Amino acid sequence: MITAHIMPLTILLPLVGAYLILLVGSKHRSFARNFGLLTTGITFAMVCYITYLVSNQGKMAYYLGGWAPPLGIELRADPITAFLLLTFAGVSFFVLLFAYDILPGEINGKVITRYYALYLVLLGSLLGIVLSNDFFNIYVFLEISSIAAAALVAVNGDKLAMEASIKYLVMSTLGSGTVLMGIAGLYMVTGYLSLDFLAGALPQAYASHPLTVLMTLGMLTVGIAVKAALFPLHVWLPDAHGSAPTSSSAILSGLVVKVYIAVLLKLLYRVFPLDFLAALPLQGSLLVMATLGIFIGSIMAIRQRDIKKMLAYSTVAQIGYVFLGIGLFSEKAMLGAVYHVFSHAVMKSMLFLSAGLLIKYSGKRTIADLSGLGRVYPIPMIAFSVGALSMVGVPPLAGFMSKWYLGLGALEANQLLFLLVLLLSSLLNGFYYMPIVIGGFFKKETVEIRQEKIPLGAQISLLVLIAATFFFGLFSNIPISFLTPTVQGIFSAFGGGI
Amino acid sequence: MSDIIVRVVTRLMIPYLQLYGLYIILYGHNSPGGGFAGGTVIASSLILYVLAFGIDDEDLRLSPSVARIIESCGALAYVGIGLGGILLGANFLSNKAAGFPLGIPGRVFSGGTIVLLTVSIGLKVASTMITLFTNIAEKEGEDES
Amino acid sequence: MDNLFYAMIFIIFLTGFWIMLRQSNLIKKIIGMNIMESAIFLFLVAMGYVKEGSAPIATEANPGLAYVNPLPSALVLTGIVVSVSVTAFALGLTVRLYKHYGTMDVDEITRMRSEEL
Fold first, then answer.
1. What residues does each domain of chain B span?
2. Model confidence over A350-409: pLDDT tens digits?
3. A-B Cβ pairs (cutoff 8 Å, strict)
4. Alpha helix (H) ranges present in chain C?
5. Shortest CA distance to A307 belongs to which of A384, A389, A374, A383?
6. A12 to B79: CB separation less than 8 angstroms, yes or no
7. Domains of chain C, with CATH numbers?
8. B86 to chain A: which residues are within 8 Å by CB?
């Protein structure tokens, strides 16, 4: 019974968990922490099971209420979806494991229950977006995720975080308003909301209403780009991700931004035919914005003195890589983009978590004050270094593999300029990550450091993330061979590329 | 707030507002309406009470903690009804396919699980609206969502 | 002339958009947000409208009646729920920010913050 209904149950479990926490947790304070961790753990296990099923069957579909599309809502899992699900559920589980002992010291005790409830709602909505095969459902989960994410920034109630949160809320409402307008336009010209039926009806709709279809595509892309913080629509990101509590920053920077990319992937590769996209100016503008984002994000990151702000600007740059991979319209580049979604999720959450620990123990947020911490607190500093090296793209790590595939994709698409972009930007990444790594281990400490024991959960979580970075760098062929058939299918379906 | 006209009119209106809200919820499957619309009407009647009689009148208004419990229960009830479909051997949120009786169209108890779903949505929406309102209105409001 | 309301909706949408981006007062920003969203809802409702259609509820008395497309209305309802909760959340944050800074002007808040640092 579980096997047949695994997809809706996976989305429901965190949502039900959130309401149970609200119901019981107000009386028993430790309930939220234990139950929240348990729920994410089970969700992770279920997602692993979905991946196993997908690797056996190839594709899974589920009709809510037994109504087949276009009448009903469909959930769908294919290898790319399963890979993204695994990323989201896995990273959020380890972030929560990290937070188990850290969070109570960081946020007000009264809001812990609510924090866990919001976190689970966010996780449920992320899984929902990835699994939905229908724009209606995607829109609903998109909104849930943006409210939950804004609330996770502001949950602690300090001024900076609240200001960042309202900025984030306004920008993401702009984004979702534009997305909804786009969805309405798609529905108007085709009469469908299900992705498969849209894909079938669009060529004809384009023949009769070319302008409306173009405007719709533009609105959807811009709306998603606002939410995914593509340059120059990224202005909300550094404040929001820089001022949130540690575990919020980790999940916002690592996962929430990525889920909108999952929507864009669905939109561009499932709905709009590739040969149609290739005829539009979309590719050029995506590539230009991505390149600018990579460079300006990195340059802004170099200028920051606050470590969390620096990591947040680095996210702007990394999102640029993903958009680059999507915009190149080639098989290898798309593999690189999907792989970078995963590897950046792991690296960035690891960086934010270890930076959070270092900030907690040194009491300072500036980069200069982190020197010497590596000798007192080896594990967080090693985690930070591994994440930083992986960001730069040092060979055996996961970040290298995603850049490798992006580079291969640039070659495949015959856009050699972007190889140069990749190389130069790696150099820039080195500029702002390396001083912290070197200073952390070899410089003398500038501030007095409290000697405290790092909680066990935090240690395990950081070690697992380090191991994952190494594992998926060394054995990247496992996920890549899992993803390749689907990606090939996308590109071969439209007459073998562009 | 001691305006006698407001108080008397409010007192007269509240029962009808709540009855109307209940009607909208219960007839959501037979006529335009449903859980969200009805829940909002019920919530607005309670908000009207607070506006007329002041927020400090602790005796009669729905307290935030109770509202929060109703909110969670409403959401869980919705999911529970959906899971009922799975337990009866059909898909999540299945209605007729899972063997729920459809009844005679036009009656209150028709349409299988839809009545139950709208009632749970109504409960959830009404209590959420009240939570939101009290959160904003109270002096030391906690942040909501 | 049939498509005139689309132009109107577009104007309302842009009005909301403009208010949201240009006004520095948070309350005005939230109002702009709502104006923009109402434009989208109007668009959806207008899209699903069928001339002289009734509510989409089949009864035995009139099984073959023309009815209004229910799906855009469902989208609108969802959108309204979302917009209400976003508005409430944003207002809550505004109230709290006002308590901290004594102003609702974003530029003013940014200025005060940079002075604090």
1. 4-137
2. 999 998 888 888 777 888 777 777 788 888 888 999 999 998 888 888 888 889 999 998
3. 61
4. 4-22, 26-48, 70-101, 106-116
5. A384
6. yes
7. 4-116 (1.10.287.3510)
8. 1, 5
